[in-house]
Amino acid sequence: MIENLDGTTRLAELGTESLADGTKLPLPPVLLGQIGQDPEKKTVLIYGHLDVQPAKKVSMSYHGLMITQFVLLINQCVLH
Q: How many domains does one find in the chain?
C-alpha cells in the first residue's frame, strides 16, 4: 500500500533479548515504512503487533450483560 504512494517499506531486525537466566530470545523484526523525505513535515508513528495470535472467542458476563470478546459494547455512554 505504501508503495502506491511512492513510499518504501523494509523489515529491520532487532536482535535478541537476554533473560536473567542467560537465555537469549530472538525479537521479532520491525516493519518500517516511509512516505516522502521532506524534513519540514512532521513524523507520524503507527504501532501494531505483527505476531498476534488469534484468541479463542468466549462469551462472558459483564455487569449482568452477556457479551462476546472483541465486540464493542456501549453501556451508558461508556465504551467497553
A: 1
